[in-house]
Amino acid sequence: MDIATDMATDMAALARSTDHNVDHKGNYKEVNHKEVNYEKVNHKVDAKISHSYHQQWTAAEKVVRRALDDQLASETFLGESKLVWLLSQHLPAQTPLFIANSMPVRDVEYFWQPNNRQIQPVFSRGANGIDGTLSTAMGLAHRNRPTVLLTGDLAFLHDTNGLLNAAQLAGHLTIILINNHGGGIFEMLPVAQFEPEFEKYFVTPQQVNFAGMCQSYGVDYALIQDAEDLVARVSCLPEQGMRVLEVRCDRKQSVQQRKMLLSLPSHLPSRLPYSPPSSQ
Fold first, then answer.
1. Which domain, by its residues, includes 1?
2. Helix, strand, or coil (residue 58)
3. pLDDT tens, 180-206?
4. pTM surpassing 0.90?
5. Same domain, 98 and 42
6. Residue at 279 is within a domain
7. Which residues pair with 248 in a beta bridge?
8. Could you tell me if 98 and 35 lie in one domain?
9. Angstrom distance (rounded) from CA 152 to CA 119
10. How far is CA 258 from each of CA 83, 103, 255, rounded to the nearest angstrom?
11. Rounded CA gap, 25 and 275, in Å?
Protein backbone atom coordinates (compact mmCIF):
# COMPACT_ATOMS: atom_id res chain seq x y z
CA MET A 1 0.00 0.00 0.00
CA ASP A 2 1.20 3.54 -0.79
CA ILE A 3 1.20 5.01 2.73
CA ALA A 4 2.04 8.50 1.47
CA THR A 5 -0.97 8.46 -0.86
CA ASP A 6 -3.18 7.10 1.92
CA MET A 7 -2.09 9.82 4.36
CA ALA A 8 -2.32 12.55 1.72
CA THR A 9 -5.93 11.57 1.00
CA ASP A 10 -6.81 11.59 4.71
CA MET A 11 -5.10 14.94 5.33
CA ALA A 12 -6.73 16.57 2.31
CA ALA A 13 -10.14 15.36 3.51
CA LEU A 14 -9.41 16.71 6.98
CA ALA A 15 -8.47 20.10 5.52
CA ARG A 16 -11.78 20.28 3.65
CA SER A 17 -13.87 19.30 6.67
CA THR A 18 -15.18 21.90 9.13
CA ASP A 19 -16.44 19.46 11.78
CA HIS A 20 -13.77 17.62 13.80
CA ASN A 21 -14.42 15.57 16.93
CA VAL A 22 -11.47 15.36 19.30
CA ASP A 23 -11.28 13.08 22.33
CA HIS A 24 -9.91 15.69 24.75
CA LYS A 25 -9.77 13.14 27.61
CA GLY A 26 -7.37 10.93 25.71
CA ASN A 27 -9.41 7.75 26.12
CA TYR A 28 -8.59 6.45 22.65
CA LYS A 29 -5.60 4.20 23.22
CA GLU A 30 -5.02 2.58 19.85
CA VAL A 31 -2.59 4.92 18.13
CA ASN A 32 -0.96 3.80 14.90
CA HIS A 33 2.50 5.07 14.02
CA LYS A 34 3.59 5.09 10.41
CA GLU A 35 6.93 6.21 9.05
CA VAL A 36 6.44 8.12 5.81
CA ASN A 37 8.37 10.42 3.53
CA TYR A 38 7.20 13.89 4.58
CA GLU A 39 8.20 15.53 1.30
CA LYS A 40 6.19 12.97 -0.66
CA VAL A 41 3.13 13.44 1.58
CA ASN A 42 3.39 17.22 1.38
CA HIS A 43 3.58 17.11 -2.41
CA LYS A 44 0.43 14.98 -2.64
CA VAL A 45 -1.51 17.14 -0.16
CA ASP A 46 -0.39 20.33 -1.87
CA ALA A 47 -1.70 19.07 -5.19
CA LYS A 48 -5.21 18.76 -3.72
CA ILE A 49 -5.42 22.23 -2.15
CA SER A 50 -6.52 25.40 -3.93
CA HIS A 51 -4.00 28.24 -3.86
CA SER A 52 -6.38 30.98 -4.99
CA TYR A 53 -6.51 32.54 -1.50
CA HIS A 54 -2.72 32.81 -1.34
CA GLN A 55 -2.59 34.17 -4.88
CA GLN A 56 -5.13 36.87 -4.03
CA TRP A 57 -3.12 38.00 -1.01
CA THR A 58 0.11 37.98 -3.01
CA ALA A 59 -1.46 40.09 -5.74
CA ALA A 60 -2.89 42.50 -3.16
CA GLU A 61 0.49 42.77 -1.44
CA LYS A 62 2.15 43.79 -4.71
CA VAL A 63 -0.44 46.50 -5.36
CA VAL A 64 -0.23 47.94 -1.85
CA ARG A 65 3.56 47.71 -1.84
CA ARG A 66 3.76 49.66 -5.08
CA ALA A 67 1.42 52.33 -3.72
CA LEU A 68 3.47 52.62 -0.52
CA ASP A 69 6.74 52.93 -2.42
CA ASP A 70 5.33 55.58 -4.75
CA GLN A 71 3.96 57.62 -1.86
CA LEU A 72 7.12 57.35 0.27
CA ALA A 73 9.26 58.34 -2.70
CA SER A 74 7.23 61.54 -3.03
CA GLU A 75 7.32 62.42 0.68
CA THR A 76 9.65 65.35 1.42
CA PHE A 77 9.26 65.13 5.20
CA LEU A 78 11.90 62.86 6.75
CA GLY A 79 9.60 61.25 9.29
CA GLU A 80 10.00 57.88 10.97
CA SER A 81 8.20 56.06 8.15
CA LYS A 82 10.35 57.54 5.39
CA LEU A 83 13.52 56.99 7.40
CA VAL A 84 12.85 53.25 7.74
CA TRP A 85 12.01 53.02 4.03
CA LEU A 86 15.33 54.66 3.13
CA LEU A 87 17.32 52.38 5.43
CA SER A 88 15.82 49.31 3.77
CA GLN A 89 17.33 50.41 0.46
CA HIS A 90 20.65 51.91 1.46
CA LEU A 91 22.17 49.98 4.36
CA PRO A 92 25.07 47.81 3.19
CA ALA A 93 24.09 44.23 2.41
CA GLN A 94 23.98 41.83 5.39
CA THR A 95 24.19 44.64 7.95
CA PRO A 96 23.18 43.51 11.47
CA LEU A 97 20.33 45.85 12.47
CA PHE A 98 19.16 46.09 16.08
CA ILE A 99 15.67 47.60 16.19
CA ALA A 100 14.42 49.26 19.37
CA ASN A 101 10.95 48.65 20.73
CA SER A 102 7.99 51.02 20.50
CA MET A 103 7.57 52.62 17.04
CA PRO A 104 10.89 51.62 15.37
CA VAL A 105 10.09 47.89 15.30
CA ARG A 106 6.54 48.62 14.11
CA ASP A 107 7.68 51.01 11.39
CA VAL A 108 10.15 48.41 10.13
CA GLU A 109 7.30 45.93 9.86
CA TYR A 110 5.04 48.46 8.13
CA PHE A 111 7.36 50.24 5.73
CA TRP A 112 10.53 48.20 5.17
CA GLN A 113 10.87 47.60 1.45
CA PRO A 114 11.34 43.88 0.66
CA ASN A 115 14.58 43.21 -1.21
CA ASN A 116 17.53 40.83 -1.37
CA ARG A 117 19.99 42.89 0.74
CA GLN A 118 19.85 40.24 3.50
CA ILE A 119 19.80 42.73 6.37
CA GLN A 120 20.00 40.84 9.69
CA PRO A 121 17.24 42.20 12.00
CA VAL A 122 17.41 41.72 15.78
CA PHE A 123 15.07 43.06 18.46
CA SER A 124 14.05 42.41 22.06
CA ARG A 125 10.65 41.11 23.10
CA GLY A 126 8.69 41.47 26.32
CA ALA A 127 7.37 44.11 28.68
CA ASN A 128 10.89 45.36 29.42
CA GLY A 129 11.75 45.71 25.75
CA ILE A 130 13.54 49.07 26.03
CA ASP A 131 15.79 47.93 28.88
CA GLY A 132 19.37 47.67 27.71
CA THR A 133 18.67 48.74 24.13
CA LEU A 134 22.06 50.36 23.57
CA SER A 135 24.02 47.70 25.48
CA THR A 136 22.34 44.88 23.55
CA ALA A 137 23.14 46.58 20.25
CA MET A 138 26.76 46.97 21.34
CA GLY A 139 26.87 43.27 22.14
CA LEU A 140 25.58 42.54 18.65
CA ALA A 141 28.23 44.79 17.10
CA HIS A 142 31.16 43.45 19.18
CA ARG A 143 33.48 41.38 16.95
CA ASN A 144 30.84 41.48 14.22
CA ARG A 145 30.48 43.30 10.91
CA PRO A 146 29.55 47.03 11.17
CA THR A 147 26.17 47.20 12.92
CA VAL A 148 23.30 49.69 13.10
CA LEU A 149 20.95 50.51 15.99
CA LEU A 150 17.62 52.13 15.10
CA THR A 151 16.16 53.71 18.23
CA GLY A 152 13.92 56.45 19.54
CA ASP A 153 15.10 59.08 22.00
CA LEU A 154 13.51 57.57 25.13
CA ALA A 155 14.82 54.04 24.53
CA PHE A 156 18.29 55.50 23.94
CA LEU A 157 18.15 57.63 27.09
CA HIS A 158 17.00 54.62 29.10
CA ASP A 159 20.40 52.98 28.57
CA THR A 160 22.92 55.79 28.13
CA ASN A 161 25.23 54.06 30.61
CA GLY A 162 26.04 51.77 27.70
CA LEU A 163 28.10 54.63 26.27
CA LEU A 164 30.62 54.00 29.05
CA ASN A 165 31.70 50.85 27.18
CA ALA A 166 32.19 52.57 23.83
CA ALA A 167 35.97 52.34 24.11
CA GLN A 168 35.74 48.56 24.64
CA LEU A 169 33.80 47.94 21.44
CA ALA A 170 35.71 45.76 18.98
CA GLY A 171 33.82 46.68 15.84
CA HIS A 172 31.50 49.49 14.83
CA LEU A 173 28.02 50.64 15.85
CA THR A 174 26.08 53.40 14.11
CA ILE A 175 23.19 54.64 16.25
CA ILE A 176 20.37 56.17 14.23
CA LEU A 177 18.63 58.23 16.88
CA ILE A 178 15.08 59.29 16.03
CA ASN A 179 14.50 62.33 18.23
CA ASN A 180 10.79 63.14 18.26
CA HIS A 181 10.93 64.50 21.81
CA GLY A 182 9.06 61.76 23.63
CA GLY A 183 7.14 58.53 23.27
CA GLY A 184 5.50 58.55 19.86
CA ILE A 185 3.74 55.19 20.25
CA PHE A 186 1.26 56.66 22.74
CA GLU A 187 -0.09 58.95 20.02
CA MET A 188 -1.81 55.83 18.62
CA LEU A 189 -3.85 55.26 21.79
CA PRO A 190 -7.17 56.83 22.91
CA VAL A 191 -5.39 58.44 25.85
CA ALA A 192 -3.81 60.90 23.37
CA GLN A 193 -6.96 63.05 23.52
CA PHE A 194 -6.51 63.87 27.19
CA GLU A 195 -4.30 66.93 27.28
CA PRO A 196 -2.29 68.24 29.07
CA GLU A 197 -1.94 65.05 31.13
CA PHE A 198 -1.15 62.99 28.05
CA GLU A 199 1.87 65.08 27.08
CA LYS A 200 3.24 65.20 30.61
CA TYR A 201 2.74 61.63 31.81
CA PHE A 202 2.70 59.51 28.64
CA VAL A 203 4.80 61.30 26.04
CA THR A 204 7.29 62.49 28.70
CA PRO A 205 9.02 64.96 26.35
CA GLN A 206 12.74 65.62 26.85
CA GLN A 207 15.09 68.38 25.77
CA VAL A 208 18.41 66.55 26.01
CA ASN A 209 21.38 67.94 24.10
CA PHE A 210 22.53 64.74 22.42
CA ALA A 211 25.51 66.44 20.79
CA GLY A 212 26.78 67.49 24.23
CA MET A 213 26.09 64.04 25.67
CA CYS A 214 28.07 62.32 22.93
CA GLN A 215 30.94 64.77 23.37
CA SER A 216 31.13 63.99 27.08
CA TYR A 217 31.42 60.27 26.31
CA GLY A 218 33.84 60.74 23.42
CA VAL A 219 31.37 59.37 20.86
CA ASP A 220 31.17 60.77 17.32
CA TYR A 221 27.98 62.69 16.59
CA ALA A 222 26.24 64.21 13.57
CA LEU A 223 22.88 65.89 13.09
CA ILE A 224 21.21 64.60 9.93
CA GLN A 225 20.09 67.49 7.74
CA ASP A 226 17.88 65.72 5.20
CA ALA A 227 17.22 62.42 3.41
CA GLU A 228 20.25 62.81 1.14
CA ASP A 229 22.50 63.35 4.16
CA LEU A 230 21.12 60.20 5.82
CA VAL A 231 21.63 58.06 2.73
CA ALA A 232 25.21 59.28 2.30
CA ARG A 233 26.10 58.43 5.90
CA VAL A 234 24.52 54.95 6.09
CA SER A 235 25.45 53.64 2.65
CA CYS A 236 29.01 52.95 3.81
CA LEU A 237 29.60 52.15 7.49
CA PRO A 238 32.90 52.65 9.34
CA GLU A 239 34.82 49.60 10.54
CA GLN A 240 35.56 50.73 14.09
CA GLY A 241 34.11 52.92 16.85
CA MET A 242 30.69 54.31 17.62
CA ARG A 243 28.74 57.23 16.22
CA VAL A 244 25.31 58.76 16.76
CA LEU A 245 23.31 60.12 13.82
CA GLU A 246 20.48 62.22 15.25
CA VAL A 247 17.37 62.62 13.11
CA ARG A 248 15.03 65.26 14.51
CA CYS A 249 11.41 65.00 13.45
CA ASP A 250 8.13 66.49 14.54
CA ARG A 251 6.19 63.83 16.43
CA LYS A 252 2.73 65.02 15.40
CA GLN A 253 3.74 65.26 11.73
CA SER A 254 5.24 61.76 11.88
CA VAL A 255 1.99 60.40 13.34
CA GLN A 256 -0.03 61.96 10.52
CA GLN A 257 2.38 60.64 7.89
CA ARG A 258 2.11 57.13 9.33
CA LYS A 259 -1.70 57.23 9.46
CA MET A 260 -1.86 58.42 5.87
CA LEU A 261 0.44 55.63 4.67
CA LEU A 262 -1.39 52.92 6.59
CA SER A 263 -4.71 54.08 5.14
CA LEU A 264 -3.54 53.62 1.53
CA PRO A 265 -5.09 50.13 1.07
CA SER A 266 -8.57 51.51 1.79
CA HIS A 267 -8.16 53.90 -1.14
CA LEU A 268 -7.20 51.15 -3.61
CA PRO A 269 -10.24 48.81 -3.78
CA SER A 270 -10.54 49.01 -7.56
CA ARG A 271 -6.93 47.85 -7.94
CA LEU A 272 -7.13 45.00 -5.42
CA PRO A 273 -8.42 41.45 -6.05
CA TYR A 274 -10.71 41.90 -3.02
CA SER A 275 -12.28 44.83 -1.16
CA PRO A 276 -10.34 45.76 2.01
CA PRO A 277 -12.22 46.84 5.14
CA SER A 278 -12.69 50.56 5.69
CA SER A 279 -10.01 52.30 7.75
CA GLN A 280 -12.73 54.12 9.68
1. 1-13+31-49
2. helix
3. 887 777 777 788 788 888 777 787 778
4. no
5. no
6. no
7. 179
8. no
9. 20
10. 12, 10, 5
11. 43
